[in-house]
């Protein structure tokens, strides 16, 4: 009898409990596909094509398709590497701006069929889509509408040709989880630009792949987050206003793409695309410049840790393989992420909230520490603030807090803070703005028994899915290598009492390498590799490489007339200072020039241009000509009407080789256009030369 009574009582409690309805969705919400997509978090981008073989970032479409000839292509090796790296998918450049198709397309004459690879019988998309299936990875395709090869580009027929091309890819290789549309819109082989028919293109995608996420500047599935350096906004809304906007130059500003719009009309979350090397395509010149582990971790925290998915580019080499330098780094990266988030210290502890929706246990704070995304803590509709205390039971070392909103009900939180109990009161650890699907706070290790998370402002009652607490292993900070205008190198480190060792012959520094004790002269340039050792060499930092051209010790700027602001800043070896020209008068925008006296006759094999590194693009040069002279009077053109490919989105140092070595005492860089339309001036962080 007692048992029956208890049963009746419990059922009534449950009935009462079920009366508390969950919160209504707030604002734009993700589709089920977008939620699944967001949960993928991290996947691989592969740039591969003729550029891999020609050292270019943007091919012109006039390259001989025979240059595409990987000697040992193995798509299974790519998939195996991605899988071992913890990635969930691979997106490949099926067609980049040069128009070259990695499959034998019926709609182009610039494809693998015309290449030397497998005597024209190969199909990279077939091999990769099969390998992805074998390794349980999703498969995605990048197709550039901009086509510098197709003769119809720039004419109305091209839109249908591009739609047919898309149709071919999306109906031939099984499921495609993401269709990547590049917004770049430049000239075709006929010098014309295309008006793209995006409605037509989107229709083709959804016809064959109704579940695909479409990436573009403005979605609709996910959006570009405004830069190619891996840094999403600290504030990052997954909602965006796109009415009235388009792709490329018609897109919202990069600043808006970086942060999204609070209360934006559509759910278009950020995808963070960044390359593991300085450029998107493979080049043997960058084998030594694979991003360090520390840099990749920083990118992880500013992408996945800021409500964005990380699309990390790993360019396939000329052999058709992922290079060992990249795969080694990917494995180190994977290991560090796994170790950092191995043990959630909140699991099994207690969580108490300031209030719970309808006082109903189904919305209790314990849902925050159950490791399940689908259960959540929330409050009554009228309550938009709240705090949760997680009691760790005893003083515990922590340095990461991970928060997640339950995004199927929308993104709500505008600001929050995290505090730690110091024995007598809560002290602030960090205060931030948005959370979204995932927000990771990184802070120096502290010891505490209780963590308090407070939602300070939200657009509707907060709905949080998880709060997790970790103690990630600390990485030993890396040495920094700097060289001044005179060519004197200094190596510093934040590590206490490090022993820094370095090499100048390209080899890896070991305990037996030269020890750094004082600044030294390295004016002629080359590559220095440094590494910090502690605890008698049982622990060491990463190996940090730095490459230098000839130091601009003897150089001077010629004709530094007034009005031109500090041209010498382009040759001061300090990329933080910028040369900016005066504005052109009237409607004239360009040219602008920089003339440098190298102080001696040199044999040059190329030049370098470092655009401003302050996050702005004002004055960054796009088209240019380059001249040399032995006397400063007669000038010889070396490169005319050339351009720095992709410099606007990826403003890294440009190393431009000459077709043949040039004797020169004077050099002249003439800026012919800026990356920004309507700009009538030019800028540079540094200009340098490459010696033969
Ligand atoms: C950009 C392109 O222009 C680059 O070459 C690269 O493919 C990058 C991912 O997107 O818009």
From TrEMBL:
<dbReference type="Pfam" id="PF00754">
    <property type="entry name" value="F5_F8_type_C"/>
</dbReference>
<dbReference type="InterPro" id="IPR057739">
    <property type="entry name" value="Glyco_hydro_29_N"/>
</dbReference>
<protein>
    <recommendedName>
        <fullName>alpha-L-fucosidase</fullName>
        <ecNumber>3.2.1.51</ecNumber>
    </recommendedName>
</protein>
<dbReference type="InterPro" id="IPR000421">
    <property type="entry name" value="FA58C"/>
</dbReference>
<dbReference type="GO" id="GO:0004560">
    <property type="term" value="F:alpha-L-fucosidase activity"/>
</dbReference>
<dbReference type="GO" id="GO:0016139">
    <property type="term" value="P:glycoside catabolic process"/>
</dbReference>
<dbReference type="InterPro" id="IPR059177">
    <property type="entry name" value="GH29D-like_dom"/>
</dbReference>
<keyword id="KW-0732">Signal</keyword>
<dbReference type="InterPro" id="IPR000933">
    <property type="entry name" value="Glyco_hydro_29"/>
</dbReference>
<keyword id="KW-0378">Hydrolase</keyword>
<keyword id="KW-0326">Glycosidase</keyword>
<feature type="domain" description="F5/8 type C">
    <location>
        <begin position="531"/>
        <end position="692"/>
    </location>
</feature>
<dbReference type="Pfam" id="PF13290">
    <property type="entry name" value="CHB_HEX_C_1"/>
</dbReference>
<dbReference type="InterPro" id="IPR008979">
    <property type="entry name" value="Galactose-bd-like_sf"/>
</dbReference>
<dbReference type="InterPro" id="IPR017853">
    <property type="entry name" value="GH"/>
</dbReference>
<dbReference type="GO" id="GO:0005764">
    <property type="term" value="C:lysosome"/>
</dbReference>
<dbReference type="Pfam" id="PF01120">
    <property type="entry name" value="Alpha_L_fucos"/>
</dbReference>
<dbReference type="GO" id="GO:0006004">
    <property type="term" value="P:fucose metabolic process"/>
</dbReference>
<comment type="similarity">
    <text>Belongs to the glycosyl hydrolase 29 family.</text>
</comment>
<feature type="signal peptide">
    <location>
        <begin position="1"/>
        <end position="17"/>
    </location>
</feature>
